[in-house]
Specification:
By secondary structure, this protein is α+β, with helices and mostly antiparallel strands. Helix content is 29%, strand content 30%. Strand 2 and strand 3 form a beta hairpin.
C-alpha cells in the first residue's frame, strides 16, 4: 500500500538518494546527477517547509527509502504570494508506471484546496517531448499556458520548448 505523507527534515538523505537515482534517467528530472547535491535537496526542503508543501511516499516493502517526492513553494517578491512554483516531482524508476505520480499530485492539490485558500495558482514547466507527463498534468487539471521556444535541450541535444502549465485552486480566497 502506497501512503502519501508530509516530508520531515529527517527525510533529506532519502530524498537525496531518490533524486540521484531519477537524475540518472535521461530527462528524469531537469537536473543531471552532478547537479543533485545535498545542498540542493536541503534548499528546496527548507523552502517548502517555510512557504510551500513537500510530500513523499515511502517504499511499501518496508525497505528504507522514499519512492516518490513532490514539492513546491512560494517565491519572492510578495506580489506572487498567491502562487506556488518551483514544482518538481520525482518517482523512483522501479516504481514508475504504477500511478504514484498521479497519487502524490492528487494529494498535493487536495492539500492546497483544503488548507491553502491563500494559493490561487500552482505552476510547473515540462518539456514538450514529455508527452506522458503533459497528459498526466492535463488529466489532473493543469492547463497549458503557452510555450517557451528553444529553452531546454531535448533528445539529440536539440533545443525544444518548455511548456508552462498551471492549476487553479477552486478554494482560493482573495
Amino acid at each position: 500500500m502506497f501512503t502519501v505523507r508530509h516530508a520531515t527534515p529527517s527525510d533529506v538523505s532519502k530524498i537525496y538518494t531518490l533524486y540521484k537515482k531519477v537524475a540518472e534517467i535521461p530527462f528524469g528530472i531537469a537536473r543531471s546527477p552532478d547537479e543533485v547535491t545535498e545542498e540542493y535537496i536541503q534548499q528546496f526542503t527548507r523552502n517548502a517547509a517555510v512557504s510551500g508543501i513537500q510530500l513523499v511516499i515511502d517504499n511499501p516493502a518496508g525497505e528504507t527509502g522514499i519512492v516518490a517526492e513532490i514539492h513546491c513553494a512560494q517565491f519572492e517578491p510578495k506580489i506572487f504570494n498567491h502562487v506556488l512554483s518551483d514544482l518538481t516531482i520525482a518517482v523512483h524508476p522501479a516504481f514508475q508506471g504504477q500511478g504514484l505520480g498521479k497519487k502524490i499530485f492528487s494529494h498535493l492539490l487536495q492539500h492546497i484546496s483544503t488548507n491553502r485558500p491563500d494559493i490561487l495558482r500552482v505552476e510547473l514547466f515540462t518539456q514538450e517531448s514529455n508527452e506522458r507527463a503533459i497528459a498526466l498534468y492535463k488529466k489532473i487539471g493543469f492547463l497549458p499556458e503557452g510555450r517557451f521556444e528553444k529553452r531546454v535541450p531535448g533528445h539529440n541535444n536539440l533545443l525544444e520548448a518548455d511548456i508552462p502549465m498551471a492549476w487553479f485552486n477552486p478554494a482560493y480566497i482573495a
